[in-house]
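Slide 14.
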Amino acid sequence: MLPLLHPKTYATLLGTLLGATLLGCATTPSPATPPTPRAVTAAVKVAPPYASTYRALPSSPTLLHNATILTGTGERIDGGDVLLVEGRIAAVGQHLTAPPGATILELTGKWVTPGIIDMHSHLGVYASPGVHAHSDGNESTSPNTAQVWAEHSVWPQDPGFAAALAGGVTSLMILPGSANLFGGRTVTLKNVPARTVQEMKFPGAPYGLKIACGENPKRVYGEGRKMAPSTRMGNMAGFRSAFIDAQKYRDDWARYAHEKLTKPDATPPARDLQNETLAGVLNGEIIVHNHCYRADEMAQMLDLAREFGFHIGTFHHAVEAYKIADLLAHEGTCAAMWADWWGFKMESLDGIRENIAMVDAAGACAVVHSDSEVGIQHLNQEAGKALAAGRRMGLTIPPEQAITWLTRNPARAIGVGERTGTLEVGKMADVAVWDREPFSVYAHAERVYVDGALLFDLHDPARQPVSDFALGYTPAGGAK
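Slide 15: predicted structure.
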């Protein structure tokens, strides 16, 4: 099968893909650096199976010259430069000198930002076209399906990946759906053309666990199936029972590891895929990503985490996060939010457009996410909506802070903040060049780099990847 490349770029990139090897509410400025979520600092102790085979595509030295730079660290540089060398950020500042042979792009009037990171996407597991055969995001056969991994459903040929790239998205986390209390493991991907999900898999990124409170699990299991959970208290009991089992599983394996020191023939416990994932949460190796809307339920989930000694990395959707923004800041828990989705079910009724700005102003980790194959194409505009809503209520949040909602904060929340999400020397050269301020409704990503490789160019069809599935069709869906 051909890789997901436009025919004009196939010859250039085929050799690299085939040679891929295993790699390892007053008017107040927002705080520049919210607390780093505690969960993302935990190291993965055991190398998991299905390891990444991602390898950066070829790149050449490039100097992005004389643009407005939003570094993602809270800094803005007018008339600034960014130098990309060997897939890394080599320098950021003004009046930089390009190395011999480098491509120099004059970007007067343009803006440069880190590549956008969407930490709540279902691309690949709910692929386009949206037919039943592509519905692979919810293993809704039991309230606890912690044993499933989203990467085993990802279809790399989903045309949504290329559409997201055109919107400046360079990395994304794919989650299972929210039908279950425990939906399964997440996977973080680099947004590159590939034949297999392992070729997209962000090397070294920690796993996450998707869990869901609220209406979804109690509706899926309680209404039609007449089984637990059918209430919010049933949800909580299901969480607690599962973590009690996981504690025993973890302790049994710890006891075996101790016994093996003196008894080499000690018998190991039986493996259990559900409890392997939940024990990873208890050990701090797997980050919890919690679908949760209401403020009272988010507070209860934080209580649950305290009971079992783990940390909730991010509440996803979190339409009432503004009600507990101070609590989120204190706990070091992020909120990944929509700009303006609300009211489509009872638990979303109290969503407000000012949510993101208020969470940010409280010093908490605010993230703009999509949860949509369409929304992921214009996350810059979604952030612009949130900026405008904040300004209307008197919260003056500058562009250099707002860009962190799309870059630094999601990178930290999914555990890759040391490697991407900001324009800092040594980090991955994941970069977007915009034709104007990126939060404008008229803004377009003109050029998108992943690890320094130019993968999208608005003005060059040969640099606009097209999956095999989409070959032979126009963007509007008609035959060529």
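Speaker note: The chain has one domain: 7-54+116-420.
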